[in-house]
Amino acid sequence: MIDFHTHILPGIDDGSRDIDMTEKMLRMEQSMGVSHIYATPHFYAHRRSIDYFLERRNRALEKTRELLAKDPELPQITAGAEVYYFSGMGKAKQLDELCVEGTDILLLELPFAQWHSDVIRDIEDIMHKRGLRVVLAHLERYEAFQKDRHVWDCILDMPLTIQLNCEDIIDAGSFFRRNHMHKTSMELLSRYDEVIIGSDCHNLTDRKPNLADARAAIKKRCGAERLAQIDEYTEKLFKR
Ligand SMILES: [Fe+2]
Asked: Rounded to an integer, what distance in angstroms lies between the CA atom of residue 190 and that of residue 15?
């Protein structure tokens, strides 16, 4: 089992506070059968340079891998980044260095606001001019902001991968926004094959690792075959 989206590296963003929390999160992942984790700390171009980010991320990764070396039963970690959209990013130097290690896959976080045509242009540039593959982080979370459906529809027509957050798959919640995101997740799950899931875990409490619960929810609502298809698609995505 793969957890594609996590903030599990210590002390680098608003995720794991320190190496102790990282170890506890890793053990939580392990207890639910996760064998491979993608560590995807936030990258914001307006705050840090890519070099500075990578240096800090790689230091946190090294620290975490020291932990894994002592206990080979813990899930393996591959580093990536959750790259927040910035205008013109399709042309940004070093963008490839933010891809998931050893791949051409970029995890892209889009603004929580109405999208405009520059977003389409940049995603097209990333895919066609830079030759990178795009995974859109927690797509269900942006839908409510897209009053003008044009950009949303254009983006969904592109050959990219949709990542859904586990908490929005598991739980409808009791208030409107959570309920809406749950509904959107279910719609995206039923309409698109190119879907992968991730916990987007940040800590041990309100945003903890929860992949197993989301998998159980998919199995219950969409059937075991759909879950197997997601696993197969995820494997294929990283093997290519
Ligand atoms: Fe995230």
From this structure: 30
For the chain, what is the domain count? 1
Q: Say how many Å lie between the CA of residue 136 and the centre of ligand 1.
A: 11
Q: What is the CATH number for 166?
A: 3.20.20.140
* 232 CA distance to ligand 1 middle (Å): 23
Give the CA radius of gyration of the chain: 17
CA of 147 to the centre of ligand 1 (A): 24
pTM of this prediction exceeds 0.85: yes
Q: Where are the alpha helices (DSSP H) in 71-199?
A: 117-124, 149-157, 166-170, 176-191
pLDDT digits (tens, 9 = 90+) for 180-199: 899 999 999 999 999 999 99
Domain that holds residue 45: 2-239
Tell me, in angstroms, the distance from the centre of ligand 1 to residue 108's CA: 10
Please tell me the distance between residue 111's alpha carbon and the centre of ligand 1 in angstroms. Answer: 13
